[in-house]
Specification:
The protein is mostly helical and about 600 residues long. Helices cover about 60% and strands about 0% of the residues. It has helices spanning about 5-10, 20-25, 35-45, 50-60, 70-95, 100-110, 115-125, 130-150, 155-170, 180-195, 205-210, 230-235, 265-280, 295-300, 310-325, 330-340, 350-365, 380-385, 410-415, 420-435, 445-455, 460-480, 480-490, 515-525, 530-535, 540-560, 565-580, 590-595, and strands spanning about 220, 225, 370, 375. The strands form two sheets. A two-stranded antiparallel ribbon has the order 1-2. Strands 3-4 form a two-stranded antiparallel sheet. α2 (about 20-25) packs parallel to α5 (about 70-95), α15 (about 310-325) packs parallel to α17 (about 350-365) and α20 (about 420-435) packs antiparallel against α21 (about 445-455). The protein is elongated, with a radius of gyration of 41 Å.
């Protein structure tokens, strides 16, 4: 008997084909998916209509009489038969379905129970010795992470499971000999760091694997410098003819050997540390970085000498961010001076973005608080910034090489930089040092002249920033010396009423400066006034012009108090005028002197 005959005989029986349905469902239940079962239920609920006239036409031909009861029974039987036929149609279509299609659906919609098994298979594949297999596994893992990241559902638990299962394997691949493996592993780690998952258990494995990709270095706390070559540093401390290692990049180019040959991967390492730091700060758990703080600082410090400018910029921003974390002030205080000295060569870089990033790190390292001593933790580097050198101190290496005796005033170069973006950032850095630095009183005489020079800048934004800096310094002076300010205002001893101080002011000034600003500049002028007078007779025309402009600004703030060294002032004025008259070039110095006389 064929299958069709069996089905037809079953339909004629009393069960109306229900036995066939039961047999089919038990015979190949695996072939019927949940989607097919839902279709069967939906068909049952629809209760499609059945044409009873066609069904009863045969009984009318033989002339059998039908009653109302018989018609109702036939109607119920027809409806049951229709339902069984629909179920059979769906069951046959399900039996014809191929099993491979069912496996494809399961792959497109993986169940959560099978996800850990697939993650474990990927983790084991990452540990294989076949580079092609590792690259393929990393690509699959990256695609899986990105798909979980882009879905609207909360997949944080699945991403956490991937990190727990594959984390150590990914960290080990950061030191793989294949560049493709290193790149893919970094991309997977960066994607996982964006998921705000728990990283505390992975930091003991993750940070050492990152630090291992940087050149080793040490830190000498006694001299507060970072050491790349310990033997050369020991030779320098014994009095050998060598330069301090943080000054190597100030004069000339220095060859730096990188550990990671690919510059894009070195930049990706910095971005990975940046995402790690952002993830930890979002969770408000900066304290877990304290055991690894010194490793991160010394690793990123080596990137300040990297030949790739983008790596220098990223490392500078990362170090500045690490120094500004309040929970890690002890570590910032320990490394502040060394970082400030290490970044000084980047302030002379030809790339403007590198210089701006270097000033950001320089400001963060100098202003880092040392609450025990009530000072800036890196304020000792200000002397290196302005190129200060004691008169009776000569380096031993200067007897063998003249370049070791050269000191460079980096702040002077920044204040006269050709790019206005650098000058503006330098002015804002000086404002932070003069206002936020706890021991600012020890450095005001060194920093104030450069702020005054910015008032004569040809860019309006820089000029306004300099005037704002002087105004804030004056307000701070009034708060710190309130008794003096009250006394001068009550007795009217600051200036003669018969003099119109608002008349004849130079271009940047629209009115007389405030009392606090005048007193602030006046009290710090005596330390550098004679030096400015001496620069009026310098052999460089640019230096003579800048000195004359600075004297003009000092005349606005100091007013008649500038005449206490009048005998020296007039002699230097006469020499400067003679030099300008004997020069064959036209300069603006004489016009500046006319303004000063007025």
């Amino acid at each position: 008997m064929t299958d069709i005959d069996a089905i037809w005989s079953s339909l004629k029986s009393e069960d109306n084909g229900s036995s066939i349905l039961r047999n089919l469902s038990t015979k190949k239940s695996k072939g019927v998916s949940s989607k097919r079962k839902q279709q069967i239920v939906a068909i049952k609920q629809q209760k499609q209509s059945f044409d009873i006239d066609s069904f009863t036409s045969s009984s009318q031909e033989v002339g059998s009489a039908t009653t109302e009861a018989a018609e109702s029974v036939q109607t119920k039987e027809c409806e049951a038969l229709a339902d069984n036929l629909c179920e059979l149609a769906v069951a046959f279509s399900a039996l014809d379905r191929d099993s491979d299609d069912e496996e494809e659906d399961e792959e497109t919609q993986p169940s959560p129970d099978k996800q850990p098994l697939r993650t474990q298979r990927l983790a084991s594949a990452l540990k294989s010795n076949d580079i092609a297999s590792q690259n393929e596994s990393l690509s699959k893992l990256e695609n899986a992470i990105k798909s979980l990241m882009h879905t609207c559902n909360d997949n944080k638990q699945q991403l956490q499971a991937i990190m727990d299962t594959c984390g150590k394997a990914l960290f080990q691949l950061l030191g793989h000999k294949s560049e493709q493996c290193r790149r893919l592993s970094l991309e997977c780690i960066q994607s996982l760091l964006l998921a705000n998952i728990d990283l505390a258990r992975h930091l003991p494995y993750f940070i050492p694997s990152i630090v291992a990709r940087y050149a080793p270095c040490a830190y000498d706390k006694e001299m507060e410098v970072f050491v790349q070559n310990q033997q050369v540093h020991d030779f320098f401390k014994r009095g050998g003819a060598s330069n301090r290692q943080d000054r190597d990049g100030l004069i000339g180019q220095v060859t730096y050997n990188v550990f990671e040959p690919n510059e894009d991967l070195r930049l990706a390492l910095c971005h990975t540390i940046k995402r790690l730091l952002d993830s930890i700060m979002r969770l408000n758990a900066a304290g877990i970085l304290e055991p690894y703080y010194s490793e991160l600082i010394m690793a990123l410090q080596t990137s300040l000498k990297d030949p790739f400018p983008e790596v220098k910029i990223a490392a500078s921003h990362l170090l500045a961010e690490l120094l500004r974390i309040p929970q890690l002030e002890l570590g910032a205080k320990y490394f502040a001076t060394g970082l400030a000295r290490a970044v000084l060569p980047n302030c002379r870089n030809r790339n403007t973005a590198v210089v701006v990033a270097a000033m950001d790190l320089l400001e963060a390292s100098i202003v880092a608080p040392d609450r025990a001593k009530r000072k800036g933790a890196g304020s000792a580097a200000i002397a290196d910034l302005v190129g200060f050198k004691a008169d009776n101190a000569i380096p031993i290496a200067a007897f063998y090489d003249s370049q070791y005796a050269v000191s460079i005033n980096i702040l002077a170069e920044l204040s006269s930089h050709k790019n206005p973006r650098v000058r503006l950032r330098c002015c804002k850095m000086l404002q932070s040092l003069l206002i936020d630095l706890p021991d600012r009183y020890d450095h005001e005489q060194r920093l104030l002249p450069y702020v005054l020079l910015f008032i004569n800048d040809n860019v309006t934004e820089v000029t306004n920033a300099a005037l704002e800096c002087i105004d804030k310094c004056g307000e701070q002076y009034e708060r710190d010396h309130s008794d003096e300010i009250i006394e001068r205002r009550q007795f009217g001893v600051d200036g003669d009423d018969r003099i119109d101080y608002n008349a004849g002011l130079p271009t940047p000034f629209t009115c007389r400066p405030s009392l606090g600003a005048r007193l602030f500049v006046r009290n710090n002028t005596s330390r550098f006034f004679l030096t400015v007078l001496g620069e009026l007779t310098n052999w460089r025309a640019e230096t003579r012009l800048r000195s004359a402009e600075l004297l003009l600004i000092l005349a606005v703030f100091c007013e008649e108090h500038l005449t206490k060294d009048l005998h020296r002032t007039m002699n230097n004025f006469a020499k400067a005028i003679d030099i300008e008259l004997s020069s064959h070039h036209e300069h603006e110095h004489l016009k500046v002197f006319d303004h000063i006389e007025q």
